[in-house]
Amino acid sequence: MAGEDSREAQRGDNHEESSPLLKANDTKICSKAEAKAASIESPPAAEEYGWTADGLPVSHGSVIGEPIGRNQWNSGLFSCLGRNDEFCSSDLEVCLLGSVAPCVLYGTNAERLGSAPGTFSNHCLTYLGLYFVGNSLFGWNCLAPWFSYSSRSAIRRKFNLEGSFEAMNRSCGCCGSCIEDEMQREHMETTCDFVTHVLCHTCALCQEGREIRRKVLHPGFNAQSTVVVLPPREQTMGRK
């Protein structure tokens, strides 16, 4: 009996070793496992893009990789009387304020940008104090531009306007080689904003005033729509 059992066990082992079905099943299991492992791939790493100082991505165009386009100012730096359009009266007001009361013009520009309570008085009074100190000690308004040039940078960033450095680089192409990234370009633009306010202070304030009045409503202006309901007209019955 023991000999017969050992023979049957050997036959079973030989049958398992020589069975093609078992080999096929093992091959199918291995192939499924390999296919599943191959299908699970690590997700591609997110592409990194640079960011400008105002939080906009460098490649923020219609297609990834397309450089962002800058908008042009509505009027030039030396366009004192503005443009002959629907804002011509506002441009004349800006020119008058810039010539007579630059502190008021700067305060209104800051008020439209900030739209917070007390913005006008805080900026206007601070500018007025620096104006009097600069004229008293040095004979000209040399201190107020150190305080007011930041408004030009804020307007340029808010409306994505072309800066003085970028315009100079576009016209002559002599300064682009020294700029490595957008952060360095933004520093150069801020420096150009400061130089513009120091050398052409009144013209810079007027240009900013014309630009912001075309794009931002005054905070005190009630822009809510008003619905006027008219009573129905008196109806009369016609006689035959």
Automatic annotation (TrEMBL):
UniProt-recorded name of the protein: Cell number regulator 8
Basic and acidic residues biased stretches: 1-18
Residue ranges, annotated region (Disordered): 1-25
Species for this entry: Microthlaspi erraticum
